[in-house]
């Protein structure tokens, strides 16, 4: 395996059973992504983008096929081992932000650091919040922040551990164009600064165009 | 961050959102009910033992017809126990020409070791406690003796050969016992003067007693020693034997209180289960997110468990405080039921509160929380992914086990706990089964109804699990409440009935046969109501079925006492009020003069008698033999004249005896009783007003206590309702916002919700009322021993209030949603 490949999938298939019989949502997909790459995953709604992303990040297990992430084959790991790997090597940004409403912006960003037991969680999180321009809002709760600000906190939370791969599922989907644009800007800046690999699902063709590579899905297959 | 820290931090934040309030409330109510009632019952039980010791005047009492060996007292002293002694004998007391047979009670220093003597400064005066005894040369006669002799404080009385001066009037002593019919007037004196009276001669009939008291350990050890060393004729009485005399009102009250607290705990368990479900729902996303960020299942479990534990601790503190205060309040209400000073509360019941909170959580909240920790991370992207379902035994096993343990702990009886848990499981199954049928049944109905009906019924069917859970929760809660309500009424009624306002308040004994008409006329003329005049003949039972009683042995001390002591016999053709023939029959006209006898069940049980047994009596030197024709149960607390042994008329007419009666009597003037004493000097008068007043006050207080514990139960029921409101609020908020966005009227949505909840309430109500009717019967008759009267009104009220309350819950959980703009709701997600 090429040392530069940070994410590799071999013959991934994900089937689900439904009342109408077995559905194949991800259909024999293989791919390789090199460290530092920025990849856009595009396709029609229902094409299986989110499912593929979840498989690559180890949130879900494929029905068949293998995945290596940062040198570890995650398809052989159990749930907790995959969780540990995620804590150390993976960052996530969602369309719906998914901040813990009970924690402040700073505490939300501290969370992944504390999960891996970092002593400097507070200072590192604060630095990251400042980096995304929310230093003054560190003590605010999610409901006191606008959508764009919440997504910036989420972005800070995803990047604060300096993950090997950052996955983003429609990070601008819930935001207006201008705010979405600033979030994208930030995403690419962070990617450039830390050399993080970025895998990004989006319907925004402009955003997709800014990525180094574009993968298009249709009915569970890569085109 | 350690899971515990994070858990507590999240908890602190969630707290403000009111999320966990219901869970905390449910637990706190359970703890309060358990610890409050537990503390109370604990104290009452210990007080009952103390009260029993007052009946003995000691912790241990050795009684003997002969002087008691001084060795016992020496041994007691060596073992660190206190001791004292009493001598009781019947003697004529004189003042000038006036004479009266009296019970002379001579006591040694230290008497009584338990309880207090009450005295007053003049005959029939205000009673007060005293810790002194008559000094040498003094006597304390009771008011009746003074009245009979026409004596006053300051006069001298002749007791045997001694002349002793009256310094105080005896009102009561702790060990006077309740066999008042046999009580002659009493005079209390110091044992120092006993030799001077010369009453105690060899062969004189005196009853001696040695009294001992110490710590429970000392008493127990000494009791063993004494049992091994005492003579056969000496009888040892301890607390256990004296306890029944304290009466069973307190026992019933404590049993009911325990049951009520259990019902509270059960209701709280339902509320805990419902809140836990909601807790799990609300935390699915949190756990999924934490897992996405790299947390393990163990971390998630530790986080939730630490949150629950923190809630349990807080609930224990709050609940214990409330429980302690409530217990103090209840005690104030119960004072009088217990006449002694109550020992301070132990810490056991408080500990029990904590254990109860933890058990409830472990049984009802932990299983879903364990499942919560297994939520897959993918839920963050796929909302329909929830926690995996637990195996059935994992889901319900811990709940059943925790209920079993709690009941076992509260009642201390394994059969009862098993029985309780099994019935509980049966009730849950009946409720669940009926709910499933309902849910399936309405599916076929919905095509044929209006929009609101269709929407409501569709919801019922769609939220299948939730509907079934709600029927079970409401049904269970309502069953407990209704059952308790029915039993509470029966218990209170049975207490009140036992002492009607018209209960006799005077007993008159020793009425000479030739004066009985004059006596009855005197009382009637003064507006008294005589119950019935019965002859009273002294006799000794000498043989049962030709076997000499003296050579027989009987099971209990009571049997021995029955067999040995002289009996009061009577005859009548009337079965007394409050008498019930349990087997055989009562006399009819043909039995007049026949050698038959009707026996009280107390007597029957103590001596092991059967119908047809031949009892031989020695009455005034003559021998009579009579066959048992029937057994009677007697309500002794009716204060009617009653006898263990009743004969038909015509058999004992020639035996020498006197008459006795009781009466409802309010002397029109205070001097009337003194006149009565002078007019009928031989008649002994027993004023029961004090006792009656005490009994009534006791009952009122027990009723109050029962009512106040019921408040706990009602409160727990309310918690269940709150939990139910909260449980479906989020879902309804979202759903009603959606419907309104689609153009539905608020009124349509509300009507639909009402249809849904009315169906749930109706089903839960009808089932609960039926189960409660059945269960109430079992509990009342088997556990509390009170007559059971099913109450259709309560039945109806139960069903109605179930429907109304459940609809209210539904309305409340939907109304807040309707008050918000659909946009706001949908944006919050
Ligand atoms: N567990 C499941 N059970 C049934 N169907 C599923 C499951 N998971 C995914 N699907 C189906 O698989 C298809 C792909 O879903 P996925 O969420 O990956 O699409 P997507 O490309 O992300 O679409 P969108 O752009 O709308 O987010 C959809 O039709 C979805 O309904
Ligand atoms: Mg998607």
Question: How would you describe this protein?
Answer:
The complex is a heterodimer of chains A (223) and B (829). By secondary structure, chain A is an alpha/beta fold. Chain A contains seven helices and ten strands. In chain A, the strands form two sheets. In chain A, strands 6-7-8-3-9-10 form a six-stranded mixed beta sheet, with helices on both faces. In chain A, strand 7, helix 6 (177-194) and strand 8 form a beta-alpha-beta unit. In chain A, helix 4 crosses helix 5 and helix 5 runs parallel beside helix 6 (177-194). By secondary structure, chain B is α+β, with helices and mostly antiparallel strands. Chain B has 22 helices and 24 strands. Chain B has a six-stranded mixed barrel. A six-stranded mixed beta barrel of chain B has the order 15-17-22-19-21-20. In chain B, helix 8 packs antiparallel against helix 14, helix 8 (249-292) runs parallel beside helix 19 (689-741) and helix 12 (414-445) packs across helix 13. The radius of gyration of chain B is 35 Å and the shape is elongated. The two termini of chain B are 28 Å apart. Classes of the chains: A alpha/beta (223), B alpha+beta (829). The A-B interface holds A 50, 53-54, 59-60, 79-80, 83-88, 90, 92, 94, 96, 98, 100-103, 107, 110-112, 114-116, 121, 157, 169 and B 1, 6, 9-10, 13-14, 17, 285-286, 289-299, 376-378, 380-382, 829. Magnesium ion binds next to helix 1 of chain A.
List keywords for this structure.
heterodimer; A: alpha/beta; 6-stranded mixed sheet; 4-stranded antiparallel sheet; B: about 850 residues; alpha+beta; 6-stranded mixed β-barrel; 6-stranded mixed barrel; 24 strands; about 15% strand; binds adenosine-5'-triphosphate; binds magnesium ion
